[in-house]
Design a protein that fits this description.
Helix content: over 70%
Oligomer: single chain
Distance between the termini: 18 Å
Number of domains: 2
Shape: elongated
Number of strands: 0
Order of helices and strands: HHHH
Strand content: under 5%
Structural class: mainly alpha
Largest sheet: none
Number of helices: 4
Length: 80
């Protein structure tokens, strides 16, 4: 995931995203980021937090874990 974000930053810093090929590369890298995130962090947070908690605190802790995950990934995906 970080490699996709670094590549996007490099494309923007070198102004390669001003051209058609660079724009397609940025869009492709955003898709790569989303796919890797959906296959890794998004699933891990839900399953890990749910498995380590007792039944009486499972729902609130899973909700809190998911909310923290969303808040922490918001700066990465917020359009600047």
């Amino acid at each position: 995931m970080s490699l996709a974000l670094i590549a996007i930053a490099i494309l923007h810093a070198t102004h390669a995203s001003d051209h058609r090929g660079g724009q397609y590369a940025v869009i492709g890298l955003i898709f790569v980021y989303i796919i890797v995130f959906a296959a890794s962090w998004a699933v891990v947070i839900r399953s890990y937090v749910a498995e380590i908690q007792p039944m009486r605190t499972r729902a609130p802790s899973t909700a809190l874990g998911q909310a923290v995950c969303w808040v922490n990934t918001l700066p990465c995906s917020w359009p600047c």
